[in-house]
Amino acid sequence: MSLRNIFIVVYLLLSSILFASFTCDVYVWLSFFISFIIITLITYYNIFIEAEYSPFIAAYVVFNYLFFLLAPIIQIGSFTETNNRFATRMIYDIGLTLQTNGLIILFNLIFFSSYLFFKKKYRNKITKIVAPKNEKNLPLTILILFVISVAVLYFSMDFMMDEFSRPNWLKSTYSVFELLVQKKVLFMIPLAIIVLCYQFYKNQSKITNNTLILFFILLGSFLLLLWFKNPLTEKRNALGPIYIALIFLFYPKLLNTNVKIMSFLFFAMILLFPLFQIFTHIDYSFEAIINKPSLLSKEFTDAKFATTFNTLNYDAFSNISATIEYVSKNGFAYGYQLLSGLLFFVPRAIWSSKPISTGELVGDFIIEQYDFNFKNLSNPLVSEGYINFGIFGVILLSLILAFFMVRLLIWLNRPDQLKRIIAFYFAIHLLFLLRGDFTNGYAYFIGTLIGVLIIPKIIHKIINFALKKEQ
Question: What is the reported pTM?
Answer without folding.
Answer: 0.91
